[in-house]
Design brief:
Chains A, B: It comes from Davidia involucrata. Chains A, B: This is NAD-dependent epimerase/dehydratase domain-containing protein. The structure is a homodimer. By secondary structure, chain A is an alpha/beta fold. Chain A has a domain of 167 residues: Alpha-Beta Complex (UDP-galactose 4-epimerase, domain 1). Chain A has 6 helices and 9 strands; from the N terminus they run E-E-H-E-E-H-E-E-H-E-E-H-E-H-H. In chain A, a hairpin with a 2-residue loop joins strand 1 and strand 2. In chain A, helix 2 packs across helix 6. Chains A and B meet through strand 1, strand 2 and helix 1 of A and strand 1, strand 2 and helix 1 of B.
Chain lengths: 249, 249
Amino acid sequence: MGEYGTPNIDIEEGYITITHNGRTDTLPYPKQASSFYHLSKVHDSNNIAFTCKAWGIRATDLNQGVVYGVRTDETEMHEELYNRFDYDGIFGTALNRFCVQAAVGHPLTVYGKGGQTRGYLDIRDTVQCVELAIANPAQRGEFRVFNQFTEQFSVNELAKLVTKAGEKLGLDVQTISVPNPRVEAEEHYYNAKHTKLIELGLKPHLLSDSLLDSLLNVAIEFKDRVDTKQIMPNVSWRKIGVKPKTVAA
Amino acid sequence: MGEYGTPNIDIEEGYITITHNGRTDTLPYPKQASSFYHLSKVHDSNNIAFTCKAWGIRATDLNQGVVYGVRTDETEMHEELYNRFDYDGIFGTALNRFCVQAAVGHPLTVYGKGGQTRGYLDIRDTVQCVELAIANPAQRGEFRVFNQFTEQFSVNELAKLVTKAGEKLGLDVQTISVPNPRVEAEEHYYNAKHTKLIELGLKPHLLSDSLLDSLLNVAIEFKDRVDTKQIMPNVSWRKIGVKPKTVAA
């Protein structure tokens, strides 16, 4: 979903019908990536769209939101199947990071004003969406785009949810605002469509108290493995030439 | 200009204001590149737009149309300063190719129906536009897009102009339709804006009889250097795995 940026109009699934000077066309939805990571996805989308047109390839572009959670039915079968759980400033995603921060007693790190709103989904829904896309392939020559998320949250909303869930487990959860290392709007309109995967049969696992409890409990269970030096963001998009800090061994 | 493709609405200069579900925003104009050559430019534009936002870089993205002509005031000062004149299916551009074809007695090669319409400009205006963009830089953090062409023509219109100009010089100019090696619309709406460079002071050299005469005369003067095996297109976007024919030395 980071391909879209935060336009001041509704985000559609890949295409938008535009009426302009009395004529109408349905065109690729304008992309406004805000990192080279997201730009690389924009480039992929543009390249693949062309190959569909030129050579009749079938493609489904899953524009995925921010994933949270760590367990699926399969990984839960044995501890050795547990997945990685990223909590650092580069690979960690907002909700997962907040759970680890709450577990180790670190204040939740809200970047800037915290009004940044994005689409989120449970890791179990990620797997379900990929399965649905494969089971229901695109038409020949079709470049199909699905917005793959189930709910929208702002960073401040997530911080509040984790604070409340932490209190129930006896944790004293604080929140701090840290200077935003990214270049992004911190207060903005956000309304992204996400109906196509639902139409194919996606049954969302919405964010619930029990999921939050279980995420926090995973973080608490393994909190001795957390390297707290990885918690604060140490790559800044704002300052040219700032390099990730290397931690002495 | 190939970044834009051939949308069914007017092409603006880099950005379009869209009203959608009651809200309005000005967003990057949707791009629909129809070759990897044009895709590489789309990627450049997206990357540079991000760097302007993130680091306040000033950038002007010159979305140039199809260039014709070969001489500028400077290269005309001595024969050894003459520029290259591409007439092959890869580097050659429509009007220049037609002039060489007319000069050597090869039928003009119209791809498919010939309704393909694009923005064109004289090579002298290319130089003028680059100079104007440098002399009038973008604001700090601005990603500015100029559509750099002066007139629109369809391929059929160009073939007619060259036929007429050739007749005046005593050439018998024929036209053939060859299977289109590209994947592109052969009949389509096309109306692209190009006012920003004019506002900065561009004085266009529009396509005139005298320019066509001079182009044809250059082609006739050097026609003994033409390798006629390079005239027909030999790279097809339609067939996967078709490679350019190599010509035995």
